UniProtKB/TrEMBL annotation:
Annotated source species: Drosophila rhopaloa (Fruit fly)
Subunit annotation: Monomer.
Listed name of the protein: Adenosine kinase
Metabolic or biological pathway: Purine metabolism; AMP biosynthesis via salvage pathway; AMP from adenosine: step 1/1
InterPro entries in the record: Adenokinase (IPR001805), Carboh/pur_kinase_PfkB_CS (IPR002173), PfkB_dom (IPR011611), Ribokinase-like (IPR029056)
Family per similarity comment: Belongs to the carbohydrate kinase PfkB family.
Carbohydrate kinase PfkB domain segment(s): 41-342
Cross-referenced Gene3D superfamilies: 3.30.1110.10, 3.40.1190.20
Entry keywords, A to Z: ATP-binding, Kinase, Magnesium, Nucleotide-binding, Nucleus, Purine salvage, Transferase
Cofactors named for this entry: Mg(2+)
Amino acid sequence: MCDRISSNVREGILVGCGNPLLDISAVVPLDFLQRYSMNEDDAILAEDRHMPIYGELVEGYRAEFLAGGSVQNSLRIAQWILRQPKVAVFFGCVGEDRYADILKEKASSAGLDVHYQVKRDVPTGTCAVLITGTHRSLCANLAAANNFTIDHLEEPGNKALVENAQYYYISGFFLTVNPPSIMQVAATAHAKQRPFLMNLSAPFISQFYMAPLLAVLPYVDIIFGNEAEAQAFAEAQNWPSGDLREIGKRLVALDKLNPARPRIAILTQGCDPVLLIQQDSVQEFPVTKLAVHEIVDTNGAGDAFVGGFLSQFVQGKSLDVCIRCGNYAAGHIIKNPGCTYSGEPEFVE
């Protein structure tokens, strides 16, 4: 079982900002994707043509409702492994409706300290999770999540929570919502010399939101991504995109405000080894391959990896322990529907 939590883990040590979404998850045939012009393993924002998806899943398929949103998922997994409530604080925007109540109940029961901004005139965001075999495709309707504003972080109680944290994690997805909020949290982390972590999140972020991504990257101490996301970044930068190690080295070498803490890139590649790329080294961390019958749902594996990593990182553990816990968490989540877990964590350092 997990070692005892070290004494330096306190409430509110980790702050995350992201899009709180209620996942509507169902197994669908491949032609369902094709009808909505989607591909297996897509991660896209909903357009008008996608809006019927959510009702169709609820009415025509055995849809499950799961608390979702990338950062909220990662923080829930970190809380599960830490087994200590309110280590992580989460900010995001929801509507004033039943879906928001479900989200808050699920997040709070997982140990998260949630501080949602509430918008009465828009519904809580949803994400269709379309499962085809071992593949999953995501179509997010951000709705209220898209309405997060920086003044929520400037409320005295919330500002104190941000300033009180020692670690900060924000997804690339949040770049589509409110870049000024990201920049404010990043500037706080920089001023206090505390680690700021970020995720490339999806290929479309690099394809369509490169300007705000490049604006925040000088603050980023650790950048996460998978192979498709890293390749999309490389292509948007006109870098050679065939060699993941080379992409990682270039990511690490981009301008950084605090050169005393060189940037680290952590790139996952499914069942192939995780790459830890630092200024002068590239290390591989093997992933335990699962049998096909063990794989229930790959949705949330990337979020779980980050959650496992964060659970050790906030305890001051070494990067290799953090990555091995990330791999443990991702492997566990894949055996469950959505980004959910079962039983007690069994990571052994």
